[in-house]
Structures are given as structure tokens and as C-alpha cells.
Amino acid sequence: MAEDGNGVLWAAGQYAFGRIVNGEWHRAGVDEGYVAPAAQWVTVDRLRNVWVATDGYNFASTSDTLRRNTVLVLHKGEHRFAPTGVAVSAVPQIAERLTEVFGLRD
């Protein structure tokens, strides 16, 4: 779980990924650019960008970048997750270093 600084609590799990806003659960979905059925890990960086490692597809064994486990980012103020192009298999954690690798946005 990670809190984004706006009172939104993001939750990653093997069966779902979404957020709790004002006590209500909202599952992340295709309309937000999130096509995976679940998430391995979620974190929020110091600029309040939400980073998530997807889960539930096939651990990078496909060339379809939306169907393999990957890292997505929801930049502060935006409403759709953007792909980073990074394929992953098992992700024990995501740390602030990712923002340095992919560049910070104010």
C-alpha cells in the first residue's frame, strides 16, 4: 500500500490493484491505462507520482508490452498510467531510484 499525498491510498495485490478514496474501493482499469488484473508492488515518489509493477500476465515472456509484467507510472495530475518500457518478473519492492532512471516530472 502507498498513500499519494492527496488522501488516496493505493493497494497492490495478487487479485487486484486500485485505490481507496474517501473509504470507497476503486479498481484501476483500462480507462486509466491499467490492463493487468493485479499488481506486485506500488509506491509513490516524492513528487507524488504513482509507480506500479503489474502482475497477472506472463512474466515478460511475450513481445506485447501491454501483456507482460511491466512498470507503469501515473504522473501527478494525470489520469492514465503510462508505460515505462521496463519488463519485470518478480518485484519485491520499488524504490525512489526509479524516478532517477526514468526522469522526474514536476
Characterization of this structure:
6% of the residues lie in helices and 37% in strands. The protein has a four-stranded antiparallel sheet, with no helix packed on it. Strands 5-6-7-8 form a four-stranded antiparallel sheet, with no helix packed on it. The chain has one helix at residues 97-102, and strands at residues 2-3, 9-12, 17-21, 24-27, 38-44, 50-55, 70-74, 82-87. The protein has one helix and eight strands, in the order ββββββββα. Strand 1 (2-3) and strand 2 form a beta hairpin. The protein is globular, with a radius of gyration of 13 Å. By secondary structure, it is mainly beta.
| Helix/strand class | mainly beta
Q: Rg to the nearest angstrom?
A: 13 Å
Any low-confidence stretches, pLDDT <50, length ≥5?
none
Strand content: 35-45%
**What's the SSE pattern?**
EEEEEEEEH
Overall pLDDT level: 81
- Write down how many β-strands occur, each being a DSSP E stretch of 2 or more residues: 8
How many domains in all? 1
Describe the sheet with the most strands: 4 strands, antiparallel
* Annotation field: number of helices: 1
Compute the separation of the termini in Å. Answer: 23 Å
Task: Characterize the quaternary organization of these chains.
Answer: single chain
Sequence of strands across the biggest β-sheet: 1-2-3-4
